[in-house]
């Protein structure tokens, strides 16, 4: 098992980038999104008032270096509660595939348990990609996503701990 072979360090550049740890900035971002929903939640920004209801345009979100994916889980929860999950796509990317499988997927299951979400709709709404996300933006066959170059909302809360990482993220 890959997890058993990991060193006790929080990260080993190029091998393990810390995705199994819940870092405080992702918790801070979720708190902010919860407090400032009108500003921080992407479908609220794109909502258009109509005479009968609020219509939303399809929204695409990207969480880079997602680890446990707390912001992505929060977006999916809120989209489901607002009945706009069918028009919401969340792409999560983490350097390590096992982090997506062991941490992110488990977190999705736990966070969605209280909601009555169709598993097929959930699978259509969430895409996962592993590896260096800079390369993923060139080759989007890894995610099954239509266009990795067009997102309404991008979070990179756990990624800016090196100059190189900050420079690559700035290109996005």
UniProtKB/TrEMBL annotation:
One of its GO terms (biological process) is methylation. The lineage of its organism: Eukaryota, Sar, Stramenopiles, Ochrophyta, Bacillariophyta. InterPro entries: Methyltransf_16, SAM-dependent_MTases_sf. This is protein-histidine N-methyltransferase. Keywords: Cytoplasm, Methyltransferase, Nucleus, S-adenosyl-L-methionine, Transferase. Belongs to the methyltransferase superfamily. METTL18 family. The keyword Glycoprotein does not apply. The keyword S-adenosyl-L-methionine applies.
